[in-house]
Amino acid sequence: MRKRIEKLKDELVKRGLDAFLAVQNTRYLAGTTAAKAVIVPTEGSPLLICSRLEFDQAKRESWIRDVRAFSGWKAPLRRGERVIFCKPWQLVANCMQELDAQAVGYDHARREFIRKLRAAYTASYRELPELMLKLRKIKSREEVSLLRRSAKIATKGMRCAAESIAVGRTELEVAAEAEREMRMAGSEGTSFPTIVASGRNSWLPHASATRKRLRRWELVVVDLGAIYNGYTSDMTRTFALSPTKKQFTLIGLVRRAQKAAIGRVRNGAKTSDVDKAAREIISRAGYAKFSPHGTGHGVGIEVHEPPGLAPDSKDILCEGMVITVEPGIYVPRLGGARWEDMIFIKARGTRILTSLEEI
Fold this sequence. Notes:
Elements: H1 2-14, E1 19-22, H2 26-30, E2 37-41, E3 47-51, H3 55-61, E4 67-71, E5 83-85, H4 88-99, E6 103-106, H5 111-120, E7 124-127, H6 129-137, H7 141-164, H8 171-184, E8 195-198, E9 218-224, E10 227-228, E11 231-232, E12 235-241, H9 245-262, H10 271-284, E13 296-298, E14 305-309, E15 322-325, E16 328-331, E17 335-338, E18 341-345, E19 350-352
Parallel strand pairs: 1-6, 3-4, 4-5, 6-7
Antiparallel strand pairs: 1-2, 2-3, 8-9, 9-12, 10-11, 13-14, 15-18, 16-17, 18-19
């Protein structure tokens, strides 16, 4: 994580900034969920800001040694506790003053927080969320290892979902079985609400699992993800309960589209070209108007990160990126189908992190 800080400092120097305030990227920089903010000065060591409740957790989990806790009300302190009785924005302002930071960048914060910070400490504040997103695009060896583990857990969850699908079971029951399996395998939670969408729900790309019972002649879309040490995963499969010929063809079509797109994934490729490869397969089959979303996205500490794989994307794929490839087709009254895998881009070639074996 120290390398991330050094890379961030290099970016600060390029932009003429004295410090960076991270509110959304605290775990990425500090390695703990206890941080409310991380302040990275151009020179010197980073500071971790947390509430009194998370002080012990922050000290235990984070590599950052300068941990400063706040409390909105005064209370007796234990021996060794370092707590400042103030609001979080006041503590951040005090730190900025201590650093003599005149130009401050930040990833994202509520307007009210920044307004109060400006009033407490006068400086130039620039919202620069793209700075952190740029750093997060390229994964380190350690990050790839964590993403592989997260993907492996997701695969276990998908296998469990496949075994749970049966006529009469509810979408919620299938989702619960998959989530339990992922928890048992070491997941911290789900990277998004697990989707189990059957029948009329399957042609809703962002459907939620409901009490609806699974029936014959329905397609069932299962989209799930795990979280391992803060790193997410994303995987989708489409199942069929006694499918009609058209439904069976639909599943085959998204699989062919995905295969074509994965064939274009490589270091230096345009993300728009990857999307185009999938879209051409779908269009030639006459389903273009039923494919409303892009073909994939980056994955990391958030399940949706840059780069995006869409017709209008300007991104270039690079070594170290981890992306999804997930073409989908959603036809009312016929059903929806989506097939998604995570892909790691190497200097030469790619590696699929989620299993492509039959599930």
